[in-house]
Amino acid sequence: MGVTDIRLDGTVAIVTGAARGLGQAMAAGLCRAGAHVVFADVDGAALNNATGTAASARSGTALGIRCDITSRADCERVVAQTLEKFGALHVLVNNAAKGQAHLERSRQTKSLKFWESDPEIWQDVIVTNINGTFLMARSAVPAMLKAGFGRIVNITTSLPTMQRRNNSPYGVTKAAIEAETLIWAQELKDTGVTVNSLIPGGAADTEFVHAASRKELAAMGRSLLPPSVMVPPIIWLASRLSDGVTGARFVGKLWDDALPPSDAAAKAREPSVLLPASDGR
């Protein structure tokens, strides 16, 4: 049995930031596996293209709902509409985010050094990535707890990216989301709801990679990863095959399709970028 044999018929998922890039790839992949997927994104026009593309090859349902994850009302609304349409919510993929490209586009940014970057955009990235992930998870968890089953997958990044020069606030937010993942996994222990993080394992070929990073990667002779590296692990994480796995971190590019899913998951699993919690700290 390979990951392409995993069926998610009847599974209901929300993927944020699903209009393009990693989010679109994961949402479409879940659809192909038979899941009913809500493509949530702040860009309503791009959502139409994303769901239209998924519709041509899906076996599940693709539904686009505009959602600004920085708005508590929007997060609660997209969950409510999902429950109304499909009667359940099993999977939340927290993918929507903003990064350094937003800083680059601002006229107030002199450079990507933190003291020369636009402070309003800097704060906007923090609010979107950290608070938005929290608001979506907060809105989704009650329905998952009621059902006794749920999957929250937070999309983060590699440790070098978190620490790279000229990469705040993006790196700062992804480190915070790793902490959210570990804390929430402990708080949801034994409820049937799991929380894990997933990363591509390198810069992916999306609009999210800003110009400076593209030049830096090219100078090092490194190529960008295809967004499709996220699809096998997200299908496995959404399935019952990942029962009991929580507080873990997986790397898309390390997934080996030639292996059985459980072995591929073990190979793709990476130690947390944070130290384990201890009493009294």
Task: Provide structural commentary.
The chain has an eight-stranded mixed β-sheet, sandwiched between helices. Helix content is 43%, strand content 14%. Strand 1, helix 1 and strand 2 form a beta-alpha-beta unit. The mean pLDDT is 90. It is built from ten helices and eight strands. It starts with 11 loop residues before the first strand and ends in an 11-residue tail after the last strand. With 281 residues, the protein is an alpha/beta fold. The protein has one domain: 3-Layer(aba) Sandwich (Rossmann fold), CATH 3.40.50.
**Given this structure, which CATH class is correct?**
Alpha Beta
Which parts are unreliable, with pLDDT below 50 for 5 consecutive residues or more?
A: none
Helix content: 40-55%
The second-level CATH architecture is 3-Layer(aba) Sandwich
Average pLDDT across residues? 90
Q: What does the overall shape look like?
A: globular
Number of domains: 1
Could you tell me the number of beta strands?
8
Looking at how many chains there are and whether they match, the oligomeric state comes to single chain
Query: Main beta sheet, described?
Result: 8 strands, mixed
Distance from N terminus to C terminus (CA atoms, Å) equals 43 Å
The number of helical runs is 10
Q: Strand arrangement, largest sheet?
A: 3-2-1-4-5-6-7-8
Strand content bin: 5-15%
The secondary-structure class comes to alpha/beta
CATH topology annotation: Rossmann fold
What is the helix/strand order? EHEHEHEHHEHHEHHEHE
- Under CATH, the homologous superfamily reads NAD(P)-binding Rossmann-like Domain
